[in-house]
Amino acid sequence: RLRPLVQSQRTKVRFPRTHGCGHASSSRAREGARDARACFTTPIFYVNAAPHIGHLYSALLADALCRHRRLRGPAAPRFSTGTDEHGLKIQQAAASAGLTPAELCDRVSAQFQQLFREAGISSSDFIRTTEARHRVAVQHFWGVLEARGLLYKGLYEGWYCASDECFLPEAKVTRQPGPSGDSCPVSLESGHPVSWTREENYIFRLSQFREPLRRWLQGSPRAITPEPFHHAALQWLEEELPDLSVSRRSSLLHWGIPVPGDDSQTIYVWLDALVNYLTVIGYPDAEFTSWWPATTHIIGKDILKFHAIYWPALLLGAGLSPPHRICVHSHWTVSGQKMSKSLGNVVDPRTCLDRYTVDGFRYFLLRQGVPSWDCDYYDEKVIKLLDSELADALGGLLNRCTANRINPSGTYPAFCATCFPREPGSTGPSVRAQAEDYALVNAVATLPTQVADHYDNFQIYKALEAVSICVRQTNGFVQRHAPWKLDRESPADAPWLGTVLHVALECLRVFGTLLQPVTPNLADKLLSRLGVSDTERSLEKLFFLPRFYGHPCPFEGRKLGPETGHLFPRLDQSRAWPAKAHRT
Ligand code: MSP
């Protein structure tokens, strides 16, 4: 449907050499250098409606990845989020709310900022696409594409979906009965209404990028995670890849960034929005080159094509490499249905943070959200999960090992290597450790690596599951040795009692350290209770059970923190544990 009116001279597209579009040549050293400079991004959020839990989920995934990266080493990653404020959708939403677009943007952008502050999203930058720095970046980027001969003016005729801000081929449009019974054209994928558009626009030579994109994706099998989304992107390259209209007539779309040198056209909102990832690293100033392409984009599956096809093609067109990584997540539904204003089932994340606490709700979304498939939200599920894993299992474990009755001195007890010798199967009158205890030590010792691997694979839910399994195993260890039955005054029991508590506290120290990216306040409370100082909370400093391995333990004999309250109060009091079980 694209008929070029003025065809500028085609120039051959040159691709950057340095980052090789993911060629196998990437050495460990370069991976290392890339690791040192890392940038995480969330999508920038449309301001046509208030934030919901799906938006918070996108931001939380990025936040947890970034916090985990910070725990790993001294190099501070960058982390950006923000609001996507231009385009027809915003222009129309403002008009129907009786506001100017700028008023709507200010209002809703502030809601996102407040939500993210309250939810502990630790971003280092919040970008608004209406900022001057962004306009400079977008217009510069446009200029580069133009100078490289990748834009031409042409007639675009076809369907446009304002809700999704995208052009659609006929095959992706279907009819649905409208409010008055007439047949309305809608997007096959999203169900949103589409309208017929016929106008002269600037067009990007997307069709030239099929092969370079294929090379990039085939050469970097981990560029898009989880794998089915990588596969989907490659699949798109098997289909038609028409050139892309990248501007709209400004008489129709005035709320946006004007095409440099042609005020009659406004830059397409997706081009505008995607460039935010460069704006936040200082583009077009030279400093941006030390950060690009070390960026990991976290996005929802509905915007995969924009990030996996259009964005890398635009970048290649501008002489830059595709992003280091794109991590894709699926959607939250509510009681089996898509969240939507019209169905009235939108879950307000601020109510959830109030009801379940910040750490509780962060834990729920990240523990239950599985990027590969949609997840269903309902309140009972939150209560059940938080009560069993945070209140009972983790909170109960801490209680059992620090309660005054069992640990009256309020110190980190000593480990006795004779009771728990390094070699499993050792015999002797003082040996008390059993085979399952060695299994526990082994599981917790390898937990940080397991968790790091899960983060690397964008499977935070698996990292949390692994921690939860170890928490259960540690509770089993405590239950098995019933320290409350041991006699503190007996020379035979006392060292073993200390050892059981020492091992359990060491496990808790590992859990607290590893939970910091997901439940930062709860982890702080836990680590403070264990007497772990701020400088002892990184992954580098995490040496589990050093006494078992024959090294000194800096915690032994240390005073426990003074805060003795519940780590995570139960939400469902009616199903609280019987008081007796609580005490043990
Ligand atoms: N503005 C574009 C993104 C531009 S990025 C250069 C946009 N905004 S959005 O507000 O509609 O969506 C932002 C993010 O929220 C997307 O990653 C989207 O997938 C995510 N979610 C929107 N609804 C969702 C659920 N119901 N569940 C989970 N995430 C969902 O798209």
From TrEMBL:
Annotated ranges, domain Methionyl-tRNA synthetase anticodon-binding: 435-536
Keyword list, A-Z: Aminoacyl-tRNA synthetase, ATP-binding, Ligase, Mitochondrion, Nucleotide-binding, Protein biosynthesis, Transit peptide
Bias kind Polar residues: ranges: 1-10
InterPro entries: Anticodon_Met, Met-tRNA_synth, Met-tRNA_synth_2, Methionyl/Leucyl_tRNA_Synth, MetRS_core, Rossmann-like_a/b/a_fold, tRNAsynth_Ia_anticodon-bd
Domain of life where this protein originates: Eukaryota
Broad class of enzyme this protein falls into: ligase
Example GO molecular function: methionine-tRNA ligase activity
Organism: Jaculus jaculus (Lesser Egyptian jerboa)
UniProt-recorded name of the protein: Methionine--tRNA ligase, mitochondrial
Region (Disordered) location: 1-29
Organism ancestry: Eukaryota, Metazoa, Chordata, Craniata, Vertebrata
Gene Ontology process terms (BP): methionyl-tRNA aminoacylation
Family: Belongs to the class-I aminoacyl-tRNA synthetase family.
Pfam families (UniProt xref): Anticodon_3, tRNA-synt_1g
Main localization, broad class: mitochondrion
Compartments, as annotated in UniProt: Mitochondrion matrix
